[in-house]
Amino acid sequence: MKLLFASDIHGSKYYAELLINAFVEEKADKLILLGDLLYHGPRNPLTRDYNPMEVANLLNKYKEKIIAVRGNCDSEVDQLVCEFPMMSTYTQLVVDNFSFFLTHGHLYNPENLPHLVNNTIFVFGHIHIPIATFENNIYFLNPSSISLPKENNPSSYAIYEYGKIEIKTFDHLIIRELIL
């Protein structure tokens, strides 16, 4: 199974369209959204082509393929326009005998981990920085933010397929890689 991970769209129609194009081009089976989908939050600037309703409409077209968790900028009102569940603070997924713990990162994060078994892939967003590491028998993956990356990083998403993780830019440049 091929998974595409993305986080922190923050209402950008422009980046949501790039994300959907990447999802289609990558031929991924599932689109994993790690929160902060529609709203930009009070500390963030408005994103390029800020249009939360259009982002919701675009994502809703792929509702059967989406697994989403709630970010700190997501609200119950957002769930009213999203036709896929997105209010859980975390979910778990098993693919190819790998256990993925999916969360936004504002509650659970590398400094505040839930109880995890060895070799779990802890996937989170929130910090807007790409990460692909293995520490203390846990894999850590953060695809960064597609609309508001920090520390001069490019907009990016992550792909999991056959025990390999790649963090990619929208022009398909691999910026991080992790073999599980």
Give, in spatial order, the strands making up the sheet with the most strands.
3-2-1-9-10-11
- Sheet having the most strands: 6 strands, mixed
pLDDT averaged residue by residue:
97
| N-to-C SSE string, H for helix and E for strand | EHEHEHEEEEEEEE
How helix-rich are the residues, as a percent range? 10-25%
CATH topology-level name? Purple Acid Phosphatase, chain A, domain 2
The CATH class name reads Alpha Beta
Number of domains: 1
C-alpha-based Rg, rounded = 15 Å
β-strand percent reads: 25-35%
Q: Span between N and C termini?
A: 15 Å
CATH superfamily: Metallo-dependent phosphatases
* Spans of at least 5 consecutive residues with low confidence: none
The count of helical stretches stands at: 3
Query: Quaternary state, please?
Result: single chain
Q: Can you tell me the overall shape?
A: globular
CATH architecture: 4-Layer Sandwich
Instruction: Give the beta-strand count.
Output: 11
> SS-based structural class?
alpha/beta
